[in-house]
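Hi team,

As requested, here is the filled-out complex form for the FO1 run. I kept the field names the same as last time so the parser does not choke. Let me know if anything looks off before we queue the next batch.

— J.
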Amino acid sequence: MIVALAGGVGAARMLVGLSAAVDPAGITAVVNTGDDTILHGLHISPDLDTVTYTLAGVVDPGTGWGLAGETWAAMEELRACSGGRLGWFSLGDRDLGTHLYRTTRMGEGATLSAVTAEIAARWSVAVRLLPMSDERVETRVVLADTGTEVGFQEYFVGRRHDVAVSAVRLAGADAAAAAPGVLDAIAGADLLVICPSNPIVSIGPVLATGGIGAAVARRRDAVVAVSPIVAGRALKGPADRMLAELGHEPSVVGVARLWAPYAAALVIDEADAGRAGDIEALGVRPVVARTVMTGPAESAALGRAVVDAGSGPPAPR
Ligand code: FO1
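And here is what came back:
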């Protein structure tokens, strides 16, 4: 069994690749819910939905989130009614159905885990999707210019992650329990994968919640991480800037330093092969592969490379 720690778009593409390499029914994804937000009374779980829609093959290929072929009538009306004050977080008409369903079911007393499984079943997703917790853990971001703390989506979407960050706070992570099945899955996994997601705001919340970090560290020998940084740049989102702003090196070596307590191996892109020695010096085995997932074929090749990396270095001849 493979257990993958997942954020949004990069993780979703990694899971497509792993699903091509092994039977998807043997994969469990533990997904970040620190990005979750309540907007217009709706419980929105962006990373869970991104992973679900991507694995179902219905994600918008342009944005990497939301549904392909969406219409936006509800948002247009919301913006018109509010003179543009509301509607900054774009919820497609069909995507709204998912949030209405999740919110209704949770109002009926269902856990986020239960609703996640129901939505995955609706899309015939074979990978087992678990939220990191059924309790609220909120990723909050302190903006460097004013020292103001804002919710993650206000930083990421509202401010287009175009502002420097001085701290990240994971409200509720200490007290929250891991969702049912998460710790058992980690303990029993043959291979654990840290997906190429933002280390600070996507994987960080997962590791900080409910003893998940300690459980992963105990399985370090079975953990393969994949760098979301290639040649010093994040493939998507603000991970490179955020690493630098928070005092980490925005490179594969900075990623290796963060993951050294948790992962025995780090998959890095061919563009970073020259840094392999620096990674090895941190006690992490570098594995060079093509990590840029531009389509299903690239995802599949990376999925195979990650599975192979989990089997350790090739035996000497
Ligand atoms: N990301 C954006 O950049 N702008 C949006 O308006 C937006 C809306 C949105 C709606 C539903 C959903 O599931 C995801 C959405 N995202 C949007 C992505 C979201 O902000 C993710 O949390 C980030 O991509 C980080 O993983």
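Two things worth flagging: The pocket of FO1 is lined by residues 7-8, 35, 44, 46-47, 49-50, 65-66, 89-91, 95, 153, 156-157 (CB under 6 Å). Residues 2-135+173-309 form a domain with the Rossmann fold fold (CATH 3.40.50.10680).

Thanks,
J.
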